[in-house]
Fold this sequence. Notes:
This is 2OG-Fe(II) oxygenase. The protein is of the alpha+beta class. The protein has 4 helices and 10 strands; from the N terminus they run E-H-H-H-H-E-E-E-E-E-E-E-E-E. It binds fe (ii) ion (FE2). The site of fe (ii) ion (FE2) has 3 residues, from loops.
Amino acid sequence: MNIENQIIIGKYDTNIFPFAEIFAEHCSETLNCSEHYKLHEYIADNLKPNKILRVGEDQATYAHSVLYKIDPRYQKDPEIKSKVKDRAFIKTYERFIGFLEASVFFEKLVYQKLPTLRIHLPNNLSVGEYHRDRDYNHPIEEINIWVPVTKAKGSATIQMESSYDAGDFHPIEVEYGEYLIFDSGLKHGNEVNIEGYTRISFDFRVIPISNYKVSDLSSINQKMKFAVGDYYSY
Length: 234
Ligand SMILES: [Fe+2]
């Protein structure tokens, strides 16, 4: 599959991969918030960021600490891990990787072991700056995949440039049940969300096995080596 300079929107069956239901159930049982696009209404003001998030802060809010309890596999502390309900999010994600291998890439994938969760609260950012993942040590062989579990429109979705270094950032609008695949050489980021709802998404990186090389570099946030068994699974 050649995705050079491309942004592709794909579709999947939400009955087979019920990501939104898993997030809704988690938000309902942890915050009493059954409609997860209203997450911002269920977080106390003093637990919300009081300024626009920057790089280094955009994975570390109270809302992230709640959302990452969606699956015990995100938890490193065995005590917390044992208390976190398994809603099969990661198991569903792993099945989704199988779907991408069989229906999209027609090849085995090396894939990010645990996808990154994004929360785009009203009047804030979900990602601190426009970037290419390679700016943070990611291998250039990676292909980015972005999956919203709410609607993703206007200022509440990912903004992409249309070709390398074009800098013409524009929103890529995606419905629940759709996903984006994009060339990791394209810069992307987001704008302050003025849509009045919380956008939640997850994203991850894959490398077709034929293109995978072991990297000595590590991720900046979690200090994981970009290798199978550490940052990646296979
Ligand atoms: Fe990125």
